[in-house]
Each structure stands twice: as C-alpha cells, then as structure tokens.
Amino acid sequence: MLNKKLEDILNVQVQKEDYSSQLYLAMASWAENKGFSGVADWLYAQSDEERVHMLKFVKYINERDGVASIPGMDQPPAEFSNLPEMFDAVLKHEQYITNSINEIVAVCMEEKDFTTLNWIQWFVEEQIEEESSVKNIIDKLNLVGDKNLYMFDRDIMSMRGAEAEGEA
Ligand code: OFO
How far apart are CA 125 and CA 163, in angstroms? Predict the structure, then answer.
C-alpha cells in the first residue's frame, strides 16, 4: 500500500504528465497551422505518449491501493515565435519533468518504498531518452538553419526513436 507522501507526489506527477500532453497538443496544433505537418505529427505523437505516461501513474496509484486524482486542465500557451524557440521550450519542459521524476526517486528512498522505487525506474530511463531525442532535434535545427525548414519538417518523424514507437 502506498503511504500518503508517495500517493501525493505520484498524483502531482499525474498532473504534470497530463499538462505535458496538453502542451505538446497545443504545439502540434500551432505547427500544423503554420504548415509544418511533419513537426505537427511529431508533436501529436509526443502528446499521445504523454497521455500514456499519465495513465501509467493513474493505474499504478490505484493498483497500490491509493486513489488517483484526475486533474482539471491548465491551458497551455497557444503561440510560439518560431520552431527553435518552441523546441527549446520542449527541452526545458522535459528537464523539468526529469527533475520531478528524480524527486519521486528521492521520496521513495526516504520512505523506503522499494516497490515504487523499482517501478519508477522505467521513467528514469524514459527521461534520458526524451531529453536526448529533443536535443537531437535542436542540433538538427541549428544545422539546417532557417533556409531548410522544409527538409527538416519532412524528416523529423524519422528522428523519433524506435523505442518511442513501440511504447505503451
Ligand atoms: Fe512524460 O515524459 Fe515527457 O514530459
């Protein structure tokens, strides 16, 4: 059974994963309206992945006899100046999520909840992959510059890791 401290911090993570999903959905919609259909597809897929993350937390909390609380929606930003600025925001957001996963690891250790400590390792690994995939995209964007965004947009889906495709 989860203790209260773990139940609370895991429920906060439900909110954060939900917000991640909404944020990437807003970015996808912005990119689609600007004509970047490849970037939009990447972000729609990312948004779906975040919803899967949120569900993993919900199901885990309930499975351990806690009560998952389903958050209301916080409105994400709807406007971004350009692609580099938007992907910088994605990276910052993922770094923020990595910190909060590390916080959960710390609470697991404090509370000696080794079951949750073991379970959360999947997210520890996932954050390495998420950050590195966004950094890779930022590197490519820097490389192509403003002139070749058409090619960048065409190729971005091939930058999605194979692991991301099979994830659930
Ligand atoms: Fe859920 O990993 Fe991104 O935010």
Answer: 11
